[in-house]
Amino acid sequence: MGQYRMASNSTPYKLHLTLSDTDRGVYETVRRTIARHPSETELRLTARILALGLWWHERLEFGRGLSDVDEPALWRHSLDGQVEHWIDVGRPDADRMTRASRHQPHASVLAYGSTDVWRENVLPKVRQLDALEIAVLPQAETDALAQDLPRSIDWSLMITDGVLYVGRDDAQHELTPEWIKRRDPAR
Fold first, then answer.
1. How would you classify the pairing of strands 152-160 and 11-21?
2. Domains of the chain, with CATH numbers?
3. Which residues of the chain fall short of a pLDDT of 70?
4. pTM for the complete prediction?
5. What integer best gives the mean pLDDT of the chain?
């Protein structure tokens, strides 16, 4: 696993995330360097950071993302190198979500942006997938959080009762993801 080499045309961002997830009893300080692909928006980068906090695990890593379409935005490997959790951000198509949920024990999607058409046309095709969970970020709040991201991101993220409270600079942002589909806990 380890860190991936950053493509030469990617922009590095330094992340310092103080995570307090009272719902799961997780309290961590996370420091990572994130590669932002030239075509990646600040909104997508913000969604990747929120996904890191939402599904935090010590082995959770950023994938190459837009630089390698065969990798997710984030993933967690077992100690023997097997993918345990595949996490996409955005609005992946039904085939990608189906493939991920059938080949990994846990697959998640954190959707953002305008999701109406995606919900209507794509989600009915994946509702039966037990290993898949899907959450949608509120558009206006996520857009506000993503504006003018500095190259050195210093956030506090508290998750309590399903609400994400992000402290950024002198502002507090409150985001309540809508859970469209929860993973079957028996899997």
1. parallel
2. 13-181 (3.10.640.10)
3. 1-8, 65-68, 184-187
4. 0.92
5. 91
Identify which of 158, 183, 153, 151 has the alpha carbon closest to the alpha carbon of residue 173. Answer: 158
User: Which neighbouring-strand residues pair with 11?
Assistant: 36
The residues, any chain, with a CB within 8 Å of residue 67's CB and separated by 6 or more, are 7, 10, 35, 37
Q: Are 134 and 109 in contact (CB under 8 A)?
A: yes
Distance in angstroms (rounded) separating the CA atoms of residues 1 and 79:
9
User: Which pLDDT does position 66 carry in this prediction?
Assistant: 62
Tokens 């692909």: give the residue.
37
| pLDDT score at 159 | 98
Comparing C-alpha atoms, which of 59, 120, 117, 127 is closest to residue 109? 127
